[in-house]
Design brief:
675 residues; alpha+beta; eight-stranded mixed beta sheet; six-stranded mixed beta sheet; 25 helices; 38% helix; 13% strand; globular; binds zinc ion
Length: 675
């Protein structure tokens, strides 16, 4: 009896949270706050209108080739691309984006971003060439469908089951209903696999009738990239994708890479064919594919694909119609621009001359060898430029902000629409290069140990003559259009006193104008969501965990214990020494979990002689507990977990684990002090 009574509700909840959140979670909406309660966005200021006009002068808007390419081969679509889901909100709909049909950008949207947002609104089923089709803008990513001898091969089944099902149904409406025999995941990001269960049957895979093909390392990275820092990434992703902002001329218009994330259920089927050899040639159902592995580029596990029969080159997400991210502002490890450029060059050399169609898993195709070669070269050179020029300047002693301010793309690259910074920007990508080689510290000892934001904010306000004086001066700067500076000083004001309404509004106004001017969809989203939270406070939502049963099953035990470690509250663990043996009967894995010196370590393949207690269980039981399908006491009571000693120490350990709050302050001081 005593064995489970001591396990409190809290400890159950804590272990249930042991893994959380893939980054690309399908987000809920700002439903709780009615428009009447919300402080409405403001119009564009004269300085913003002038900036938009200057940009419009500088870019080749008369060139409409991209619109032709984005519409080429159009077959059919759904009205407004409306895809209903299980929630009151559709899984996908272009209806809220109808405002983008206006030819000219309003003053509140950067005209170059407006153009990209229009291109990303052209949705439906498209024929690329005989036997090769794409469904575009039914989600943030593309589904590519290739017709084999007996069935279909699908590359990247979108982010959610709902949108993938709708995309395939639209294809079947116009083409023979052949079964899907093969699925290829181009890389390990969720918008390229999450809808898989809508297009292929797991039983067929088990029976050897169907295959899922992926680059080496796919499963580890698909699950791993967003576990350890997943809670922070999810919150930050709200800023990057703007999914909580209402779409509109003063709201969300695009992410640059595509419209937004679909809302629905994420699934995952483990691949049963891994591509491990570079330039490996395989035949699936009569379709020849040459796989070009590109690890450590846009994703840690990624590959390009060349289809010689159709002269189609699929560059996955290694080329796209925008500058991609060497650093993604939701937060992630930085990517290597040098390697990225090299892999594009390899693909160009190997396949470029024999390609009539270049497709990607985002955006629209490029047609004809000459255009393809130009496109690949200038995408390659864009990443090479960012890398090399950032390194050149850092070797001259320049620091991240200075490099970002100095660098300018040559006109030959900057005038190509597909090299514009709609998703990544030259500014934050150059800082990513600095980070890759030199890290966060700029070597100026004044920045080695500065005061944290609240203390610094209070001092700034005091030295600058008090809040009222700062606001007066900042308003003048605001009128002059010096929004970056106003945002900086207003940020000090908010950190010094988050209840200062005037300061919050001034900070919001400055961010908003920067959002209106931003060419990057990601920056616009970040600025406008920052303005939203300064004005209205954090949305009162409880974001759903996107931890799916599929992802959970794929989580390695090492990763599970790593994640327990990062949740350990050092203060509560101070002075404690706890040793627990874990034995998994089905997978025949054993672990010793050791708490000592406020650090949680583990050793696999061992059992400690003098453990405080031991747990004997199987993996499905652990999964069920993590998914909250079963409580820890229930598992003990039903015999699914056998405890080899008193549970006190186990309970004590669970009580030391933090539960991460999915909504934490970003633009103002944390309300709760660090524990
Ligand atoms: Zn993607």
């Amino acid at each position: 009896m005593h064995s489970f009574n001591l396990l409190t509700r809290r400890s159950i909840g804590l272990i249930a949270q042991a893994t959380t959140l893939l980054c690309l979670q399908s987000t809920s909406v700002l439903a709780q706050q009615t428009p009447a309660q919300m402080i409405q966005p403001k119009p564009a200021e004269p300085a913003t209108i002038a900036a938009q006009a200057r940009l419009k002068q500088s870019l080749p808007f008369a060139n409409k080739d991209d619109f032709d390419d984005a519409r080429y081969g159009f077959i059919d679509t759904l009205p407004d691309a409306l895809i209903t889901g299980a929630t009151p909100y559709p899984a996908w709909s272009m209806k809220p984006y109808a405002f983008l049909q206006k030819e000219t950008a309003p003053d509140t949207v950067n005209p170059s971003l407006w153009r990209q947002a229009q291109l990303n609104s052209i949705h439906g089923l498209f024929k690329v060439t005989d036997r090769v089709y794409q469904v575009r803008n039914f989600d943030i990513s593309n589904m590519t469908i290739i017709e084999g001898d007996k069935g279909l091969l699908i590359i990247d089944p979108l982010l959610t089951r709902e949108t993938a099902a709708a995309a395939l149904a639209l294809y079947y409406k116009h083409r023979p209903k052949k079964p899907v025999l093969n699925v290829i995941y181009s890389h390990s990001h969720a918008d390229h696999f999450g809808g898989v269960k809508a297009v292929i049957d797991e039983a067929d895979i088990a029976a050897g009738k169907a295959q899922v093909i992926a680059p080496d390392g796919f499963m580890e990275h698909a699950v791993a990239e967003n576990i350890i820092a997943g809670n922070a990434m999810s919150r930050r992703a709200q800023y990057q994708f703007g999914a909580l902002l209402p779409p509109g001329e003063k709201g969300q218009v695009d992410t640059g890479l595509g419209k937004t994330l679909s809302r629905g259920s994420l699934t995952l089927i483990a691949p049963n064919v891994l591509i491990k050899q570079n330039m490996e040639k395989r035949v699936f159902d009569g379709i020849e594919v040459v796989f070009h592995l590109t690890p450590g580029t846009e994703a840690p596990s990624e590959m390009n694909m060349y289809f010689p029969q159709f002269k189609v080159l699929d560059m996955a997400e290694n080329t796209s119609h925008n500058m991609h991210n060497l650093y993604t502002i939701r937060g992630a490890e930085v990517r290597d621009g040098n390697a990225w450029a090299r892999y594009i060059d390899e693909a160009l050399g190997a396949f470029g001359a024999n390609s009539s169609y270049l497709i990607g898993q985002h955006h629209w195709p490029t047609r004809g060898p000459q255009k393809i070669a130009d496109f690949m070269k200038k995408q390659r050179d864009m990443y090479k430029f960012i890398h090399d020029q950032s390194v050149r300047l850092l070797n001259q002693g320049y620091t991240p902000n200075e490099i970002a301010e100095t660098l300018q793309m040559p006109a030959s690259l900057a005038n190509e629409w597909y090299d514009r910074g709609y998703y990544g920007t030259l500014s934050h990508n150059s800082k990513a290069v600095y980070q890759k080689y030199l890290g966060w510290y700029d070597a100026n000892p004044a920045n080695l140990n500065p005061l944290p934001p609240v203390e610094a904010g209070k001092k700034y306000v005091e030295y600058m003559g008090g809040a009222d004086n700062i606001i007066k001066r900042a308003r003048e700067d605001y009128k002059q259009g010096n929004y970056r500076w106003v945002a900086t000083v207003a940020n000090h004001l908010v950190y010094a006193d988050p209840s200062n309404r005037e300061a919050r509004e001034l900070a919001a106004d400055a961010l908003e104008q920067m959002g209106y001017q931003a060419e990057a969809g990601t920056w616009r989203n970040a600025y406008l969501f920052g303005a939203y939270e300064l004005r209205n406070g954090m949305p009162k939502i409880n974001p759903p965990s996107s931890l799916t049963a599929d992802a959970l099953q794929a989580l390695s035990l090492d990763m599970f214990f790593d994640f327990l470690g990062v949740r350990l509250n050092a203060g509560r663990a101070d002075g404690k020494h706890i040793v627990i043996n874990w034995q998994f009967t089905d997978t025949r894995q054993t672990y010793v979990l050791n708490l000592e010196n406020s650090a949680l370590t583990y050793t696999s393949g061992k059992a400690a002689d003098k453990a405080d207690t031991s747990l004997v269980l199987d993996r499905p039981t652990l999964n069920a507990i993590m998914l909250k399908q079963m409580t820890f006491p229930q598992a003990v009571q039903s015999g699914k977990i056998k405890l080899g000693g008193p549970p006190d120490k186990l309970v004590e350990l669970f009580s030391m684990l933090d539960e991460f709050n999915p909504m934490f302050e970003v633009i103002e001081p944390k309300k709760a002090a660090p524990k």
